[in-house]
Amino acid sequence: MLNTPWETGSDLYRRLVVSALLTTAVGILVAVVGAATEQRALVITGIPVIVAGMVCHLAGMVVRSRDVRRRMKGMS
Predict the structure, then answer these.
(1) What contacts 35, CB < 8 A, 6 or more positions away?
(2) d(CA 41, CA 33)
């Protein structure tokens, strides 16, 4: 059995990772569509959506490190 973050992560961590991936993907899609259609407003709209996805990803990393600290504290 592999000991991956997905397998050992909490439900909150998994939800944050999935939402980060989806939010970032939507932001990239909006930015690419805006660039392809030469609509500057769409490109500028896509940037904060991508940033929101990155924030979700960082929140997932914080939750994961918190879970690991709790697990390590319980082992000692």
Answers:
(1) 42, 43
(2) 11
